Amino acid sequence: MTRTVRSTCPYCGTGCGVLLTPTDTGLDVKGDPDHPANFGRLCSKGSALGETVGLGSRLMSPQVDGADSDWDSALQLVADKFSDTLAEHGPDSVAFYLSGQLLTEDYYVANKLIKGFMGSANVDTNSRLCMASTVAGHKRAFGTDTVPQTYEDIEEADLVVLVGSNLAWCHPVLYQRLLAAREKHGTKIVVIDPRRTATCDAADLHLPLASGSDVALFNHLLTQLYENGALDAEYLANVNGFDEALHTAFCSDVSVTGLDPRDIKTFCDLFTRTEKTVTLFSQGVNQSSSGADKVNAILNCHLATGRIGKPGCGPLSITGQPNAMGGREVGGLANMLACHLDLENAEHRAAVRGFWNAPAMPEAAGLKAVDMFRAVGTGQIKALWIIHTNPAVSMPDAEAVRATIKGCDFVVVSDVTGATDTARLADVLLPATAWAEKDGSVTNTDRTISRQRAVLPAPGHARPDWDQLAEVGRRMGWKDAFDFISPAEIFREYAALSGIAAGFDRDFDISGLAELSDEGYAGLEPARWPISARRQGGRFFADGQFFHADGKAKMLAVSYRAPEAKTGPRYPFRLNTGRVRDQWHTMTRTALSPRLSAHLAEPFVEIHPTDARQLEIKSNDLVRLRSPQGQSILRARITDAVQTGSLFAPIHWTGETAPAARICDTIASVVDPVSGQPETKAAVVSATKY
Ligand code: SF4
User: Fold this and answer.
1) Using alpha carbons only, what angle is made at residue 390 by residues 388 and 392, rounded to the nearest 5 degrees?
2) 620: exposed, middle or buried (C-beta count within 10 Å: 0-12, 13-18, 19+)?
3) Where in the chain is the domain with CATH 3.40.228.10?
4) CATH fold label, 63-130+323-525
5) CATH fold for domain 132-318
6) Which residues of the chain form CATH 3.40.50.740?
7) 639 in Cβ contact with 619 (< 8 Å)
8) Residues contacting 614, CB < 8 A, separation 6+
9) N or C: which terminus of the chain carries fewer CB neighbours within 10 A?
10) From atom 2 of ligand 1, which residue's Cα is the shortest distance away?
11) Is residue 558 lining ligand 1, measured as CB closer than 6 Å?
12) Ligand 1 atom closest to the CA of 174, numbered from 1
């Protein structure tokens, strides 16, 4: 009998619902008409999912030192090595590096094992490369990492401002929802992005600002909102820091944006007179050495006007990965604790420690991604477990990261394939179940928790990540704490912990699901948190109540800072990086679909015609980019979508698909001092014909 299962797409943070039906040749995939993220829509990547479930590249059994092994030997080796390393060198000598691709239940067990039982906060995730600046900005403004808005607000807004977001390619279904709303009631669209992307096709105004100058633009907007009487004095009574933020904004120089003053005025006038304004922001804001300040400059404008938490009105960060939000919620970052509690708050720590009955708990933040791999390189970290991510290609200064992983005493990699740059460096490779074989939950960009359901059998000896982690926990001596037998059981424990967190006046609360039966979990419908007796779904902050100790929000006084790396005679070009429409991350899944690979088949670099002429580079020539960190060789695409002096290259190609084209080899490991997020959109390079 044909069985159709409701699940979620494993790509972007939109979190679309899918209907999955196994067929003789694989999997039929359709959009779920009842899912509140997409109402049946899918983009090219989601609709090609059925083409990516073949087993050709799958890892089928554990491997130790490159040879086939069995689960008992491999997991005992992992448990023994981590136990010995902890005993000999202490908790700072171990680390986990996780992924926004993990399900919430996997993330919860990983975080519990390393923070509560190994006693180390050295757990970070590729979400650090994705939206850590937003987390920092939210916490500084609101007291918690709270997304105030919902997808419906995009449809209710009269003005949507997209900052550093190529929504048309990176979150296509949200873009379709925006265009459908514009068709109905004429929503105005402004795109703020150094590059003219596909998203600009529908824009009423495109502001091609200088790379990294967003703070100057939003500071100027704040002054214009003030001068034109658009501030909400009543709302500002619940906001600290207004005077200082405004004073700093007045000291800001908007000319650094390089924008035409008439365009700046058009934008400011539009924002000033449009009450129902949503500002969507994404990686162009986050992946910057001033990312957290950019986020706060945007939040300042919404707080000052009281345009937040209301229908059609507020800031909305668009996350890159399918479960980046779930990872934030379980505290899967080096500076966080589960359920939006703070690692460096003694009462919060004591509450979690008591709930877990944990023997150890770190008292300070652990190492964030860039510092974590540096510590691997110096030998401080001697045992590293990397789960569902490919840092050997995706980290900045990736060539150096490959060398540090190679030199680490003991590296475990859990993944669905052994054919990645990172997996090839592992001492122990553990075969994990893939998207269509996994059961658990994810949270999308607007706080909607959805179930991901298994529809295909696990091939070979593949096991779920939570199961691998729990087994290692048991083998390290913590049998009761890791006696999980199902994702439902993990979810209930997590939901119960959120009830304790809510007692500290935290936003994240799903305690209403703590008593969910196995059947209830199996049939759980998509639902936006909070889900508790106290509060259900909806928006945050329209009531002016925030999560700082005094209940008020905070506006931050932020000043423009140029990108860290400076162009000059040796490295005259500013290099921007990003995604293409039909590929995902390092292509381990999307490259399996011929249809997706046909869109843009080769790694490329976009060059402005004026620059190309000067460099005597023609369309389709090979171009060598060099930076102080390394080099990348790419096919030239000559286009005025990039500005003169700027280049753009996609992030996807790896040692497996195009070794010479690994773009992160050219990116410096410069980070935002507040969020620790690397500046992956503003490297400096030279460009020459190859
Ligand atoms: Fe999947 Fe994102 Fe496309 Fe939706 S918009 S189908 S979540 S990739």
Assistant:
1) 150
2) exposed
3) 132-318
4) Rossmann fold (3.40.50)
5) Dimethylsulfoxide Reductase; domain 2 (3.40.228)
6) 63-130+323-525
7) no
8) none
9) N
10) 12
11) no
12) 5
Element (H, E) at 6: strand 5-8
Cβ of residue 553 lying under 6 Å from some atom of ligand 1: no
SS3 of the chain: helix, strand, coil, percent, to 5: 35, 20, 45
Comma-separated ranges of CATH 2.20.25.90 domains in the chain:
5-52
Q: Which CATH code for domain 5-52?
A: 2.20.25.90
Rounded distance, CA 282 to CA 317, Å?
Answer: 6
pLDDT tens string 218-272: 999 999 999 999 999 999 999 999 999 999 999 999 999 999 999 999 999 999 9
The per-residue pLDDT for range 168-195, each reduced to its tens digit, is: 999 999 999 999 999 999 999 999 999 9
Which residue type sits at 658? A
Q: Are 274 and 307 in contact (CB under 8 A)?
A: no
Beta strands 448-452; 553-554: pairing state: unpaired
Angle at which helices 346-356 and 487-502 cross, to 10°: 150
Give the residue-averaged pLDDT of 592-615. Answer: 91
Helices assigned H by DSSP within 476-608 = 487-502, 518-522, 594-597
Residues with Cβ within 8 Å of 47's Cβ and at least 6 positions away in sequence, in order, are 29, 31
- Pairwise CA distance, residues 297 & 677, whole Å: 17
Do residues 462 and 58 lie in contact, with contact meaning Cβ atoms separated by under 8 Å?
Answer: yes
Tens digits of per-residue pLDDT, 83-103? 999 999 999 999 999 999 999
Mean pLDDT, the chain, as a whole number? 95
Q: Smallest Cα–Cα separation from 267: which of 257, 253, 308, 177? A: 257
- Report the C-alpha dihedral over residues 541, 544, 547, 550, rounded to 10 degrees: 180
Residue 113, CA atoms < 13 Å, CB-side half-sphere = 35
Pocket test for ligand 1, best of 7, 8, 16 (most atoms within 8 A of CB): 16
Distance CA(688)–CA(686), nearest Å, equals 7
Cα angle 114, 362, 81; round to 5: 35
CATH assignment, 573-689 = 2.40.40.20
- Mention every residue, 6+ apart, whose C-beta is less than 8 A from residue 466: 103, 105, 106, 108, 109, 440, 484, 487, 490
- Give per-residue pLDDT as tens, 484-518: 999 999 999 999 999 999 899 899 999 999 999 99
What does the pLDDT look like over 64-73, one tens digit per residue? 999 999 999 9
Element (H, E) at 650: strand 646-650
Cite the residue boundaries of each domain of the chain with CATH code 2.40.40.20. 573-689
Most informative mutation of 12, 151, 593 for ligand 1 (most atoms within 8 A of CB): 12
Alpha carbons 553 and 616: distance in angstroms, whole number:
54
**Ligand 1 pocket residue status of 603, Cβ below 6 Å:** no
Tokens of 533: 């007796």
Distance 205 CA to ligand 1 centre (A): 26
Type of residue found at 534: R
Q: Is the peptide bond before 530 cis (omega within 30 degrees of 0)?
A: yes
Q: Are the beta carbons of 286 and 231 closer than 8 angstroms?
A: no
Q: What residue type is assigned to position 102 of the chain?
A: L
At which residue do the structure tokens 């259900």 appear?
536
| Under 8 Å between Cβ of 29 and 19 | yes
